Amino acid sequence: MELYLKNWYKKLLDELLNTRELKIISPFVKEQVIRKIESQFNFENFELITRFNLQDFAMKVSSLSGLKFCVEKGASVFGIKDLHSKVYIFDKRAAIITSANMTNGGLVSNYECGIFITDKSVIQNLHNYFNDLKKIASNKLTIVNCDVWETKLVGIEVCKGKATSLSDYGATLTSFDKTKNYYIKFFGKSDNRVELNFPITTEIDGALCHYACGFPLKKRPQQVKEGDIIFMARMTKNPNDYAIFGKAIALKYTEGRDIASKQEIAERSWKQQWPIYLRVKNPIFINGIMADGILLSDLLSKFDYNSFPSTRKRYDDGEIDIKPTKSLMRKAYVKLTHNSAEWLDQKLDEALNNAGQVDDEFLKRLPQTTTNISLWTK
User: Fold this and answer.
1) With contact defined as beta carbons under 8 Å apart, do 49 and 24 qualify?
2) Residue 73 DSSP code
3) DSSP β-ladder status, 46-50 and 22-25
4) If phi over 0 gives left and psi between -120 and 50 gives alpha, with beta otherwise, what is residue 49?
5) Whose CA is closest to 236, among 184, 183, 186?
6) Which of 26, 36, 288, 365 might form a disulfide with 102, Cβ 3.0–4.6 angstroms?
7) Side-by-side strand order, sheet with 87-90
């Protein structure tokens, strides 16, 4: 073991000469350092775990152009929210654990502290740690991601050490709550399907599903409990499918409270036929088009009869020829098994990471419910 307190850039470059696979964990990176490493190493054998916080890029503490260069040269780049570790792994023979980011300051000018390790058991544990983080991150950074983020950063000015409110596209470890029930609420009808290039914000504006999902008078959503999770899906064409574009937390249906007011019907005339509400809170929507969502057919293909509790029960009762798609006919919503719901939750997180999330400012500009919910919850 060797101790490094400052300026160990040369040590890093020396180790590259004997390295076939390089893995680095560094919250902040700078393009100058990345280009220097690339000049001495094949980036097709390089994996980097960093942060995808646009705030970091706007404040110039990390380099989006540097990450884009990594991808262009064949590296695999992943993003984790709240990442703070700094680890450099050279095959399975050596590693550096340090306080230093992959920046000129971290590697050259700052006073940093790090240790160079060759202990095989420790290095294996670092590989395991790296792989665990990579599983959380799931999807690799793409050029398209970089281009979209660059557009979002145009005109952003840093003020008093912080930029304006910007998104963090890093992944987080989600804990799936099996004490809740999970449902998919369907939007649209067979005669008004939308194409996959239909904007999700247009659907939110039309459905006003940021505060409630509509039902016909004779189909009150009394099965749903307080705190259950509602995924939202729009009927699509080319292909005929359902694109899941967001989720929210349900409020238990309350008779007399959960019905459209005259003003709300005036705002959206379709509520005349679908006036019953399943109210929701804390909605999360993909900021893209329906193609950025998750197709229900992918879920059915993966889980088949285990997609829904209803089809799972029929299978357990001995039925063989089960077609889950038939369970969707004339249904306003359907309950998911925990297995299929957990998978869908992960896929939605990936979609949000890739396309971004509809911001609260957009939702606040939309019409809001005229009902004072607090009066009903006292």
Assistant:
1) yes
2) T
3) parallel
4) beta
5) 186
6) 26
7) 2-6, 111-117, 94-98, 87-90, 22-25, 46-50, 76-79
